[in-house]
Structure to design on (106 residues):
């Protein structure tokens, strides 16, 4: 799959994970599973900040620690990452539809 396709998939997953996390905030096991999946997907697409925040949420849940501030940090990371993902998709799409002209070898 193309990088633009992978980034589109990440954007969908970020939005869906955020919605699921908000729905599962009172269900620790479900929220830990969402955080685990999101950490891996974000890491695979180099969305490092989201991956780290998701991993921190998973760790906090597993340790029985309060999660409100960790959930807020994850939400903030996702919201900050989505515009960057959209911008990268747009640039990749532009590069695909209008590639730079090649210079002939002399």
């Amino acid at each position: 799959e193309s990088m633009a396709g992978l980034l589109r998939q990440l954007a969908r997953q970020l939005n869906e994970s955020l919605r699921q996390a908000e729905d599962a905030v009172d269900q620790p096991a479900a929220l830990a599973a969402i955080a685990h999946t999101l950490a891996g997907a974000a890491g695979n697409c180099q969305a490092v900040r989201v991956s780290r925040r998701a991993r921190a949420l998973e760790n906090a849940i597993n340790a029985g620690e309060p999660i409100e501030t960790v959930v807020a940090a994850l939400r903030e990371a996702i919201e900050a990452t989505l515009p960057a993902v959209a911008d990268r998709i747009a640039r990749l799409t532009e590069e695909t539809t209008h590639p730079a002209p090649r210079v002939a070898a002399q």
Remarks:
- The chain is about 80% helix and 0% strand.
- The first helix runs from residue 3 to 23.
- The radius of gyration is 17 Å.
